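User: My collaborator sent over this chain with a note saying "see what the structure looks like." That's all I know about it. Can you take a look?
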Amino acid sequence: MSALAGPRGPGHLGESRTVTDDHDAPGAPEDAAPTLDALMGERRRKRGSLAEAGIDPYPSRFDRSALAADLHGRHAGLDADVRTGEQARLAGRVTAVRRHGKLSFVTLADVSGSIQLLLQQSGLTDQAAAVLDALDLGDWIGAAGEVITSRRGELSLDATELWLLSKALRPLPDKWHGLTETDTRYRQREVDLLANPDSRRVFEIRFAAIRAMRRLMEDRGFVEVETPILQPQAGGAIARPFFTHANALDIDLSLRIAPELYLKRLVVGGFERVFEIARNFRNEGISTRHSPEFTALESYQAFGDLTDGMDLTEALVMAAAEAATGRTAFAVGDREIDLAGPWPRRPLLDVLAERLGRRVHPTDDRDELAAVCREHGVEPLPEWGPGKLVFELYDQVLLPETTDPVFLVGYPVEVSPLARHTADDPTMADRFELCIAGKEFANGYSELNVPEEQAERFEHSAAAKAGGDAEAHPADQAFVRALEYGLPPTAGIGIGIDRLVMLLAEVEAIRDVILFPMLRPEASGA
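Assistant: Without extra context I'll predict from the sequence alone. Here is the result:
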């Protein structure tokens, strides 16, 4: 008999064992463990025996009247050996089975937690007895009976009826003690979530963070919208896109790298505050901090500037941290990062000068800037202009050394083709990046809304692309035409959801916070 003090974590299948599984039988030598094929064959045999008895192993529905947590909440603190009189119908996955003669104990886990089923042979219907006899760990079942406490005081369901809702043909690995092989965890996330409580914790943090951010945006009057994933040309950021082909139109399309241009067109159309929690795609490297498919929150608000963007970014990150974890301090490697605000806002060129020991600027001689790059371990590419060289000094030298949150403000226009330039310097943009623990977490700026200037920047980008720069921003004439109808002063931001969840969940690999990350195809027959 298990001795649960209360509901366990939702869907937690670790830690429990059963004497009814072949591979867990007491006294069986390790080298005598049956093969996977043998285990699955035995489970198929049990499923077949139920079908022969007229019991459908895959019924179409089941009406559940309560969750495990509901019962624990209503009947907390009861004495041992008490009958409540409440009849309940529960459904979930089998995580443990104990058989003691004509009395069996089954642990059932649902989305809210776990509860014990007590099954007395004399009180079971014929169907319930047959289902119990064919039961394996991992099976989905339904049960009906009276809510009681056992002789040991554990809240239980004295079940008289039992239904098989879906037979688990494949047992979980490692005797339910967890799935540790990294590649298998990512490829079979469903098994990872069942076997590893920490994986569930990470994604519960992710879901709570996104809910909090969406709620804050709606409370501030932003409207959530949807923009195209398939686009005639990918714009809104500087990145290498994925390409595909639409057979119906016989045209090539790109997967979006950002929703920015479409969102700003909505502001032109009169939706003054819009946001999208968007899946974006960039045909670039895969690492612990980069994924070709990722999620970002992007928003635009009319009549604001980059100061409003920084205010909103800080509020969103803090709301996500509070809702998902209830704290502001997080471990990143051997460091503790404190998100408690307000966060400093510092000019990028000032901070970069402190780090380099000299001041750099996009108007500096290109060869001199290239020499500074080499001096600090940055190898410049021939197509990089002065602004790009300054940016790479930030990106490769300064950014990795950041710790607690800081807004760095003012970036070269050369790498900010959609941001308006500062009032006193046409080579610098009113743009910020939020830097935490050596990574960029958010980007934002005062949006460029002068059609002619935007068209001119697109022309420069098109020339760069023609010169071999695969990441240069395409010239989007439809967006320029939209600007000609008038875009009011507008603040825009983009926040990387995946990196934020990595911080909040204190994990170091981006694949740990993406449910189904991109992987190489499985070997044939795996």
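A starting point for your reply to your collaborator: Residues 1-30 have pLDDT under 50 and may be disordered.
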